[in-house]
Amino acid sequence: MTGAEHGHAVQTWYPEVVDGPFTSRQLIRIDEALRLADAETGATFSVYVGDLHVPVRGHAEKSHSQLADPDNSVLIAVSPNQRVLEIVTGEKVRKRLPDRDCALAAFSMTAAFTGGDLAGGIVTGLSQLASHTQKI
Fold first, then answer.
1. 64-82 burial, b if ≥16 CB within 10 A, otherwise e?
2. Which residue of 45, 119, 123, 135 pairs with 33 in a disulfide if CB–CB is 3.0 to 4.6 A?
3. Is residue 81 within a helix (H) or strand (E), and if so which, with residue range?
4. What is the per-residue pLDDT across 36-61, written as a single tens digit (0 to 9) for each?
5. How far apart, in whole angstroms, are the C-alpha atoms of residue 109 and residue 91?
């Protein structure tokens, strides 16, 4: 813990991320892909990696609904242990990002996942989704 905000300690590192499935370099690549996708589209992209409760689509949709601006957000939810990928788009983004393009991105991502490249698959998916999302 470092820093202080109005007399309260502020957590600046998150052990669950450090101990997760990604190296520091992979986390930086994913973070950069998220920032580029956001800037390129005006939408907000998020990634969740971890187990999803059954029904997995319902869990992904619930997680998406808890984002700051769900209508203008895209959530990529990946559960490597369950071999599941869900892409959830908000109402505003759905008008700019067709399901067909989400399916193509999902196909590319799962191909990378099958090859053992979780981070690369996420980066590829973010790039494809952003490139297919029509700018506002």
1. beebeebebbbbbbbbeee
2. 123
3. none
4. 999 999 999 999 999 999 999 999 99
5. 23
State the DSSP code for 66: T
Burial class (CB in 10 A: 0-12, 13-18, 19+), 93: buried
Compute, in degrees rounded to 10, the torsion defined by CA atoms 115, 118, 110, 124.
-110
Give every residue of the chain whose pLDDT is below 70, as ranges: 1-19, 136
- Reported for 108-115, long-range contacts at CB under 8 A and 24+ positions apart, including other chains, are 109/76, 109/78, 109/85, 110/85, 113/78, 113/80, 113/85
Can you tell me the distance from the alpha carbon of 105 to that of 75, in angstroms, rounded to the nearest whole number? 13
CA distances from 39 to 23, 45, 70 (A): 24, 10, 17
Whether 85 and 105 have beta carbons less than 8 Å apart is answered as: no
The pLDDT of residue 8: 47
